[in-house]
Structure formats: C-alpha cells, structure tokens
Amino acid sequence: MIIERLHLNSYRNIKDVSLEFSEGFNFITGRNAQGKTNLLEAIHIFSLGRSFRTRRTTELVRFGSEHFFLRLIGRSDSGVGFRLEIGQERSGRTRLSINGKKMKGVSEIIGFMPSVIFTSRDVELSSGQPAGRRTYLDYTAAQVSPGFLADLKEYRQVLKQRNSLLRSAAAGGTLDEAQLEVWDEALARKGASVVTGRIEMLGVIAERARDIFTEVLGREDGLELEYRCSYDPEGCGEDALRAALLAARESERRRGYTLAGPHYDEVTMRIDGEEVRKYASQGRRRLLAVVLKLAQADVIMSRRGERPVVLLDDIFSELDAGVVSGVRNMLSDRYQSFITSPRGDDFPGDIPGVVGYKVENGVFRTPEGSSKAS
Ligand SMILES: Nc1ncnc2c1ncn2[C@@H]1O[C@H](COP(=O)(O)OP(=O)(O)OP(=O)(O)O)[C@@H](O)[C@H]1O
Ligand SMILES: [Mg+2]
Questions:
Q1: pLDDT at 373 over 80
Q2: From ligand 2's centre to the CA of 219, what distance in Å?
Q3: Measured from the CB, is residue 12 less than 6 Å from ligand 1?
C-alpha cells in the first residue's frame, strides 16, 4: 500500500497541514517535542482504529479545538485508489469513512491499511519481559491467520474463567471439581492450538529475520529464534499441557490462578549462540527489535499480498553508521517507509527517492523551505 497524501487538522500540535509523500522513504526530522511522533501516530490510527499511544481520544484533539480531522489518500499495490477519513469530537464522537462511505464503528477500518510500527516501546522487544515477545508473535500471527486469532481469544476466555474458579476456591469457597476438569480440557486443547500456531509463525519469522539481519549487517551473524514452552521444554503438545495442569493443581488451589500454559511461554533469541537478553549490546538489541518488525512486515506482505506501510519512530539512535545505512538499503524499494529522527544527518541528501520534512512546532517544511502548511 502507498500513502500519497495526508491532511491533518487540529491533531495534537498540528493545526492544519497537507503533506505529500514519497513511495519510498519519507524522512521526518526536527528537534524533540515538535510533532514527529504525532505524525506517525496519526497515520497509524488508520490501521489500528485508535492511537498506539493512548486510548483517551480527547488527548488527540489540539488544545483549544473541539475536534480533529484526518484524511488519507492512498492506493493499493494493484493501483486502486482509496480515501480514508477520521473525525473525532472532543466529546468522544468519532466519524469514519472509507471512500466517502460512513462506517458504523472505528473497528471497521482495522485491516484495511496494513502497517507495521516501531516505537520507543519496542526497543525492549528482544530483551525485555517475555510477555512482549509473546504479544509480538500473537499479533503477527493474528494479522495473517483468522484461525489463530479465534484460538487465542478462546484460550484467553477459558483462562479467565478457570482463574476465576480457582480464585474463589483460594478465597475459601469449595472448588467445583467437575467444572475445573471441563476448563482443564478446554485449556489443554486451546492452549496446544495456540502454541502450534505460534511455533509455525515463529518458524516463518525466524527465517525472514535471519535474512534481514544478515542483509543489514552485510555478514552472517547467526540469529536464532526459538519457542520455549514453559510447561514442558521437551514437547509442547496437548498431553504435556494436560499433565502440567494436573501437576500444578495443588499449588493452583492455594494461589488461586492458572500456573501452566502458553501465557508463560518464552521466545529465546540468540546471536552467534549468545542469548540476546543476557549478552547483547544496546545497539544489537535495538537492531534486533527493528529487524523483528521488518520481518513482521514481510510476513504480512507474503500472506496478504499487500505491502504494509512501515512506520519507524526514531530507530537510528544507538545504531552505528554502517547499521544505519544497512537498514536504509534494506528498506529501499521494499516498502513505503516513514522514518523519524531528531538528527537530520541520518538521511544524507544524496539518497534517491526521499521526501524529507522538517517539523517545527507542528509545521512541516521540505528542506527547500517551501511551507507545506496550508
Ligand atoms: N492535544 C494536543 N494539543 C496540542 N499539542 C499537543 C497535544 N498533544 C501533544 N501535543 C504536543 O506535541 C508535542 C510532542 O510531539 P511529538 O511526541 O510528536 O514529539 P517528537 O517530535 O516526536 O519529539 P521527540 O523527538 O522528543 O520524540 C509536545 O510539545 C506536546 O505538547
Ligand atoms: Mg517522538
């Protein structure tokens, strides 16, 4: 997908701006707190149906204004044009339309314009808490497989109900053994399906990530990603989970929640045999997190047949010049990308196909100085 134009009105610190974009790189630079992330956030709303930074939509409306309005003009990879519009009142009312047709809810836009976003929160993806890696894997798989999403939702539902049963038992109530067995069975079945989906997805991601990592660094650096079941490292099947639930039953009764299942699983990452969480440098961790996002973009592209828009918020800090140019080369011709940085020299002027904007206090200008605010 290609975003050709974006109009923003009263969005965050952006008063009224129309921007045109390159099919390749769009580089947004400017000092801190000027509106770089605000722009990526606005674009991403068209994918997610809401902001990636907040659920409180009133925060998005410019101080002193009563509503914001965003219009995005784009085209699919096959050349079909589209127009998306989102309006939001400070009072909370949202209006959304696709090609002029009003949609009932914001969620109806999800899936229309695939995108991948890297933000400061994703830096810890490769080395932070395991939950971040599980979410990344689940999100990627859910984007390309409705079956996986259904399994995941059912698993979460069963987990919630099972936990509530255990919680009341731990609080002194009597445990409904027959009901617990029903939940055990459902948890083992759905849990195993989730794990199967995750392992399959990770296999695809691992291959893509390894290739991208090698391409960016210009040499093989032995990236390995591996799924680790929390309940039985030897085998992640349904029976193993059933056995783990049985073994955990006594402590679950005391503690009041489920102690085994894919919600404790981990993805381990190694570079040249060394575990990233324990040994990798800051720059490598950041690079790996970016590579995981780019692998996600490749997965979406190959499964959906549509190139996602790639939004990269301040990815270059901590990366050395060689890695920065490796990432730029890897992205060129592959995706339409929107890259922000407080340092203008991350994109030297001699790179072809770059549209550059410098933002200051919500006003965007091209380097030639022509104001793009309307
Ligand atoms: N609803 C709003 N109305 C007006 N201004 C807002 C609103 N929400 C945020 N801002 C302003 O937007 C600015 C932050 O913009 P943004 O997060 O895009 O900065 P940035 O350019 O990405 O900076 P950094 O380099 O530090 O990440 C702040 O100055 C903030 O006051
Ligand atoms: Mg920012």
A1: no
A2: 31
A3: yes
